[in-house]
Amino acid sequence: MKQLVVATRNKGKIVEIKALLTGLVDQIISAADFAELPETVEDGSTFEENALKKAREAARFSGLPALADDSGLAVDALNGRPGVFSARFAGEGAGDAANNARLIEECANIPDKQRQAAFICVLAYVTPEGNEQLFSGRVAGRIISEPRGDGGFGYDPLFLVEGLERSMAELNLAEKNSLSHRAQAFRKFRDYLESLA
Description:
The protein has helices at 11-20, 47-62, 96-107, 173-179, 181-196, and strands at 3-6, 27-30, 66-75, 116-126, 132-143, 159-161. By secondary structure, the chain is α/β, with parallel strands linked by helices. It has one domain: Maf protein (Alpha-Beta Complex). It has a six-stranded mixed beta sheet. The longest helix is centred in the N-terminal third of the chain and has 16 residues, at 47-62. It is globular.
């Protein structure tokens, strides 16, 4: 594939996506490269709805195939929250530090053994011709009380990966790309692109 628009302005995600799609896409264009591309209102109630909405708008606006993800953290004891509100858990425009502080606060009275959580990613691929595909990934873990590690972004420092006893932020990029929710979804997307070649 020559060009692919990725409907995100998150630089951390773009770095991961470029690494995950090496050799399959000649040029990855970020939504930030289109000054006029409006910010998508993520008002869906599921990761699938939000991912499709972002990809459809980017494909329509750019005239190129577009990829969007909606991903987030679902904590069992919080009834799946923050879920689709992961990026704005502490309020609209909140950054990682504020979102992490709110998560620590909400989990404060939950015993360690009951802090099961999962990172979930849904990718939507939409072409200007209207072809739409969904790919998903999920990583199990639990929420810890103190941030660990300085890699990654978002909730990575508070998410202890099941079976590793290391936080997502303690993994290097290669390790993260081998097991993350986003990596799982992207492997499925890569398989799909290779099936078209």
